[in-house]
Amino acid sequence: MNLDLPQSWRDAIGSEFDKPYFKNLAKFVDDERQAFPLGIYPAANQVFAALQFTPLDEVNVLLLGQDPYPGEGMAHGLCFSVEKTVRKLPASLKNIFKELESDIGIPAPNNGYLVPWAQQGVLMLNTILTLRAGEPLSHKGHGWEIFTDEIIRQVSAKSDPVVFVLWGKPAQSKIKLIDTERHVIVQSAHPSPLSCRDFFGTRPFSAINSALRAARKPEIDWGIPDVPL
Q1: Which of 30, 90, 151, 220 is the least crowded, having the fewest Cβ atoms under 10 Å away?
Q2: How far apart are CA 214 and CA 133, in angstroms?
């Protein structure tokens, strides 16, 4: 795995890489890449993309997902986001865009590449960072949760307020890692087709920007540029 991280992350979580659980995890993922013929997602150089795009000292929002998309060519290291070349967007991402338009009037873009959000301080973190192609949650319980729990703790330890966005029960189970006295929690049902009826109408994007305004931080421009088709 490519462990090239911004200095603020390396200072905060660099010691995790030397712990036995992470060494076992790294060996497991490397072995899976060699043994599994259909591949492991995302690519090795994208596993820590969320941390690379959003250094710890720039995190103002943490959006928590579960594990990468299992479809070919989709996952690239940011939760809910897909590569620019993906034309058929995952249902959860389509529902996120529906709520975005309903909430603040931004129409759905022609792609699901959410890097512009990450570049504005939205840490787009999955709790499990890899999986086998076509097998959701196939890397659950091998150590990623220990690692990403520490990331959540480090974000919670920031002196400035952060908005934690927790969609669905698995994400909401992490609230125990967050100092809710200092940080803002925006939570609702997950945008997946199984629960989107309770996700629609929750207006998370305006809630996030309202919390950022209250903290005297820059609001997020939620627009995603279209890409040439």
Answers
A1: 30
A2: 42
Q: Please compute the mean of the pLDDT values over residues 19-47 and round it to a whole number.
A: 95
Q: Torsion over CA of 105, 79, 126 and 76, rounded to 10 degrees?
A: -170
Burial 80-119 (b: 16+ CB within 10 A, else e): bbbeeebeebbebbbbbbebbeebeeeebbebbbbbbbbe
Residue 52 identity: Q
The CA-to-CA distance between both ends of the chain, in Å, stands at 32
60 in a structural domain: yes
- Would you please indicate which residues are annotated as catalytic (active-site) residues? 67
> How much of the chain exceeds pLDDT 70, in percent?
99
Model confidence, pTM: 0.96
Q: How far apart are CA 123 and CA 117, in angstroms?
A: 8
The CATH number of the domain holding residue 33 is 3.40.470.10
Based on the structure, what is the number of domains in the chain?
1
